[in-house]
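The methods section describes the discrete structure representation at length, but only in general terms. Each protein is reduced to its one-letter sequence and a matching series of backbone shape codes. I believe one specimen quoted in the main text would settle the matter. An entry of this sort, consisting of the sequence and the corresponding backbone structure tokens, reads as follows.
***
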Amino acid sequence: MYYNPYPYFVYPNYYLTWAMATQQPSRHLAMPTNPASSNPFPPVNINKLKTSAKRMKAIMQQAQLLTDKIDESEQFAHDLMDAAQLSNKTEVEKLIASTGITIKFETNYTPDGIRIIFTDSDCCKLTVNLSW
């Protein structure tokens, strides 16, 4: 059994009673609670969101062209990985463009994989990370 050489006594509800008596509600709230302005943001307009979603579908179809080509062709996958490991950026971009991709893209690669960022003007970006 554990022995405590410094005994202490617990008085029931003493601390709780003291804490409630000394505590006052804060006057500094994180957000204003004025019911007249309950929503500080402008009204919701989903037009841009819907446009972005539609454009993202097109970007995803472009990315699908690349992933399908890598999945279906061992020679293409080998050539892409070999060019990336040799840091041959022009060859990597030429291989990716040969899959039929028509939108703008950027490539970055490391010894662990490749990252392709598909961009549709200022609207949307899709980043595809593939490991090897």
In short: The CA atoms of residues 33 and 95 lie 58 Å apart. The helical segments are 14-22, 47-72, 74-85, 89-97. The beta strands are 104-110, 113-120, 124-131.
